[in-house]
Design a protein that fits this description.
Elements (H helix, E strand, L loop, with lengths): L4 E6 L3 H11 L4 E7 L3 H11 L2 E3 L2 H5 L5 E4 L7 H9 L3 E5 L6 H14 L3 E4 L6 H11 L6 E10 L2 H6 L8 H4 L1 H12 L3 E9 L13 E8 L4 E7 L10 E9 L3 E5 L6 E2 L3 E2 L7 E3 L2 E3 L4 H12 L7 H20 L3 E2 H7 L2
Parallel strand pairs: 1-2, 1-4, 2-3, 4-5, 5-6, 7-10
Antiparallel strand pairs: 7-11, 8-9, 8-17, 9-10, 11-12, 13-14, 15-16
Helix pairs in contact: 4-5, 5-11, 6-9, 9-11
Length: 343
């Protein structure tokens, strides 16, 4: 592709603004338009980045924009993504791809018909710690996967203060996509079955109707298994917004990593800065969370099929849907049944 890729962003909340930042200083693209249902927010960000703004996805679909980020709330990915794919745009969607396997499957099908690049922003794959873990697995130093444990939780400030739509999501949709994708990526195997337990009540008492905490035991191909744990009620006194750790044991070795803390700070309180906050140095916005967005531009410009595909997003969505079914029914749920029944 000659020239810069013309890009847009739909959904201008916390992470949508990160997409705009990633595009704004990348030499291979031009941030052309930003879109949000809130007119004031769209106008403000458009003026900040000196680009067009709109409240209409249809306007972007009919424009000459080539590639678009979808960063709307978890439950609102399908309609804008599907509309833009049908219009022949290259699309990157924030995790989760969708909140039903049926919607995820339809989006994958739309991308296949359009023949455009379609990617899910599983940005944990670009974190140096997880990339390092993947290198050990690829070199065969761990042997075949046997057992894993993955925890990703947030302090209660996230559902009660940071997200205005938390009651329409939950820690399963907001956090499980990161860990479930990372473990599947590390072990290189698909999930087979899930059995889950959870707790509700703390957030419900605050008017937020979602799960407080969930544990899901997932069997993967080859009998490997992983316990996934997530919670939205970690006390705000915890040193970081995020509690993230992963352990993986194989037949020949193992590894353990903790995403937080990497930096300990002692000021008016002891804390560890949230690693997803942007840092601007050397004239460029830096951070692992921006790299997959720029990588998506490279895929469009160089005509390369992205990693973290729509099919990856579909598998994670099916796994979370199976988790919720297991919570409801109190029984193990097979992932293949969820995929087969998705429509």
């Amino acid at each position: 592709m000659n020239g810069k890729v013309r890009v847009g962003v739909v959904g201008l909340g916390i992470w949508g603004q990160n997409h705009a930042l990633a595009y704004s200083d990348y030499h291979r693209c031009e941030l052309t338009v930003v879109c949000d249902l809130e007119e004031d927010r769209a106008r403000e960000l458009g003026e900040r980045h000196n680009c067009d703004w709109t409240t209409s996805v249809e306007e972007i679909a009919s424009s000459d924009v080539e590639a678009v980020s979808i960063a709307t709330p978890d439950f609102a990915h399908f309609e804008p993504a599907d509309a833009l794919l049908r219009a022949g745009k290259h699309v990157i969607v924030e995790k989760p791809l969708a909140t039903t396997a049926g919607d995820a499957k339809a989006m994958v099908a739309s991308a296949a018909r359009a023949g455009t690049k379609f990617m899910v922003d599983f940005h944990a794959r670009w974190h140096p710690l997880f990339m390092g873990a993947k290198a050990y697995v690829e070199k065969g130093e761990l042997g075949d996967p046997v057992m894993a444990y993955a925890r990703l939780s947030d302090t209660i400030s996230v559902p009660t203060e940071m997200l205005g739509w938390s009651g329409s999501s939950g820690p399963e949709w907001f956090l499980f996509p990161h860990t479930m994708d990372i473990v599947r990526w590390l072990v290189g195997r698909d999930p087979v079955e899930v059995y889950a337990k959870g707790y509700r009540g703390v957030l419900a008492d605050k008017g937020i109707d979602c799960w407080d905490a969930i544990q899901a035991l997932v069997e993967f191909e080859g009998k490997a298994f992983c316990t996934f744990e997530t919670s939205w009620i970690v006390p705000n006194s915890y040193t970081n917004v995020v509690d993230n750790r992963l352990t993986l044991y194989g037949t020949e070795g193992g590894l353990e990593l903790r995403n937080e803390p990497n930096l300990w700070v002692f000021t008016d309180r002891f804390h560890t800065p949230f690693s997803s906050e942007s840092i601007t140095r050397y004239g460029k916005v830096s951070g692992y969370q921006y790299e997959p967005i720029r990588y998506f531009v490279d895929c469009v410009a160089d005509d390369v099929v992205p990693e973290a595909t729509g099919q990856d997003g579909l598998m994670v969505t099916a796994l979370i849907e199976a988790t919720l079914t297991s919570l409801r029914d109190g029984t193990p749920v097979r992932i293949r049944d969820v995929l087969d029944n998705a429509s």
